[in-house]
Each structure stands twice: as structure tokens, then as C-alpha cells.
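Question (not urgent): is this output format expected?
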Amino acid sequence: MEEKVKDFNDELMILKYQGSLPSVVLDSMHTTIDAMPVYPPSKLIQLYIGDGNQQSNEVDFKKAFELLQYLDAEDGNEMEVDIEEWKMLIWCKMILKDGWNDIDTSSDPFDTYSHTVLFRTIQLAQSSGLLSELLPDVVQLMNRPELSDLIKSSKFEFLLRATFERIHRTLLTTST
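Got this back:
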């Protein structure tokens, strides 16, 4: 019985995420909340972070991360879901959301790039207590084919490594 209640609550939460899809996403799909079918969490993640959400922001990426917990419950999906792969996809989409030309490596990245979706999402995840469970391995992230053009820039690689190192240090000091 408890399992059924949990499943029901999970389905309600998934519907809540679907109901809060940005209007730009609905417009790009030529639909409304009332007319669209119920989507599985994987589709909702894609809608939140995909090209149809041209105005995606840190809240959309945080919602995509939150939806990860429901991937196992997808439509009786018997296949194992690779949550880490989904996390990497979300991180890549988040990074690619902003332009990274003219990187100034002499400044503090948290100050200089605080306006980017990447840094705003990091700050939001940290304030929500989610950051430690969402952080990817920076080396694996840099090896992603989606980021191959960016990683060619040694300045971007430095920025990414410095950012993740600082986050790890911050998380270590707050956990002790």
C-alpha cells in the first residue's frame, strides 16, 4: 500500500513539473497544458533544457535536475536508467546556454561570470542543498563530445576546472 501511495505521489509531482513548463516550450510545441499528453520524466527534462526552451534559466535546469529522481518510475521502464548520463547532459546543455568568448582568467569566475546560467544554477543548487549530489566529475564533463569545441579553449578549461575546484572546496568546508 505504501508503495502505491509513493507511486501516486510521484506521478502527481511529475504532473506538477509538466504543468509548470514555460510557455515558450508550449508555444514551440504548438500546444497548451490542457491539450498535451502526460509526458514521462525524460521527455520533461528534454523540454526544460532543450532548444525549444530558448529562454531557459537556472530554475529550468534545477527542475531538470529534480526530475532525475523520477526517471526510474518511467512508464514501467524495465531498463536501467543511467542517471549520471542524464546529469552530464543537463550540465552540458547548461554550459552551452551561454557564450564563453573573451574569458578573463585573471578574475574570480564567480564574480565575472555570475550572470551566466551555469553560475546561477550552481548558486541555486547550492542554496537548495542539492549541489553536492548534482556535481559531475569535471574530467568526465570536459570529455563530453557536446563540449569539445569549448574545451579546445585553454581559458575555458581553466575556468571550468577552477570553478569546480572551488565548489568542491566550499562543499568540503561546509560539510565539516
